[in-house]
Design a protein that fits this description.
Order of helices and strands: HHEEEEEEEEEEEEEEEEEEE
Strand content: over 45%
Largest sheet: 17 strands, antiparallel
Helix content: 10-25%
Structural class: alpha+beta
Distance between the termini: 39 Å
Radius of gyration: 24 Å
Amino acid sequence: MGYSDAYAATIRMTRTLLLIIIFTSFGTFSIGQTDEEKQKIDTAVDNAINAYLKNPTKFKKYLDPAIIKQFPDSGRIENSLKEGQWIEYSLDTIIAENSTLTVGNNTLPMRNSYFLKKDVGNYIKGILTGTWTLYECFATEAPFDFEMRDVRFYKNGKLNGKEIYYQGYGIYRTPLAICNWKDGVKDGIGEEYDYNYPFNRILLYKISNGKTVLQQSFYPNGKVETEQTYSIENGKEIIFAKHYFQNGQLDYTGYFLDDHPYKIWTVYYENEKIKSIDNK
């Protein structure tokens, strides 16, 4: 899943820096610090970042990719084809590439570890079928505990129906992204949720036969912030955009063509009265 890979990479990069700061700086943290104590914390944070910049690998362990040999796939073979339930293991290598994270004026080199994935589902005569559940493990050494991350459904070897990608762990697990499939192509309503509590919905979209036709983003209060509808004009994609104030009233409407304003744009006051009309 492209979405999960990108999110995992971002989470793991920022988590590295957060752990450095937490464990080196906030061990003596308490509510109601004095100015002197706050200054000590700020100094400790700066020292931690500087130490990380000098030797990033000192602060992080990495999974040995050879560990995958300890996790063989298991299932039944009939007539040289996979049959029934299978448990399949793999290494996620996409986010293990070297990258950087910018903090203020500093650019931190980041190296992300491989992590283990476990897929559990069924085959019929070698074809994916029914519900498949993906589990992930971010541990770099034993014990390797897997957490459910993604649930999807196959029909005749192709993704069909709803797929849910989760965030969090155990009883705190909540959806991060939901999409729908039809014969291996995204089709229908999709949603994305904030990674932070209270995990509000931040995006809703509609896809028809693999093409986006509607997309909405939301304010923290749940009201629509932007709405974009997609259409084709003379062979080119046209986007009609609406932006709303937090009170739900229109801010502006207008069209985009090739990422540039196009046709008529209308800007409103918060009392819904027209402020200006501009023909692009």
